[in-house]
Amino acid sequence: MVLCENQRRSRAPEWGSRLVLTPMGARRIQVSEHGVFETVEEEIVLTHLKSWKPFQRSSRAWSAVRVCAAVVLVSFAIVVALGVNMYTMQTAPKAHADYDGDYNAYPYGECTWFANERFHDIYGYYVPWHIGNANEWVDQAYNYGWQVSSTPSLYSLIVLQDGVQGATGYGHVAMVEQIESDGTIIASSMNAGAGWGSSSDEEYWSGPGVAFIKP
Which CATH number is 111-214's, of 3.30.70.270, 3.30.750.24, 3.40.50.1860, 3.90.1720.10? Predict the structure, then answer.
């Protein structure tokens, strides 16, 4: 740094070192007898700037901590929400659920096998449960959110409890194919009047121990 000519003429020479302030701190300079300022030391950062840096670093650190905490909380909320949704999907009744593939798990020849096959013919998928005797199908229907009624409807499954209208100790299930004007129900079934492994149309009636289920 060099003083302009007018400044040198109007001031008395002041030899020695002096401290010159700069935007970033202070610089120690030496004034020679020729009026030229020469730097004799490295830049000296002002004390208040030095003391402020730790606080700046601390502030940045806390900002980073707050950002990380926010990210963790948001991630935790997402995981909890996904967990609740997954739990709901696993436990909620599902009318179109398949247990382990699209097939009939009931043994051939039983009324449950035929009812499941006839249901598949009409609706395009099998019942969502794969265990339980015929007399348990009402409870299964409740579990899967199906309609359960004492009033017959076309293409609903009629479920008879033990000993009702000729049902065995395991109950009976059949597909409602027709409803007559007098209330008589024509249902297709297997292992009924025609014997084991044979299908036939049988007549049934609404009443105690009789329920109708459909999705």
Answer: 3.90.1720.10
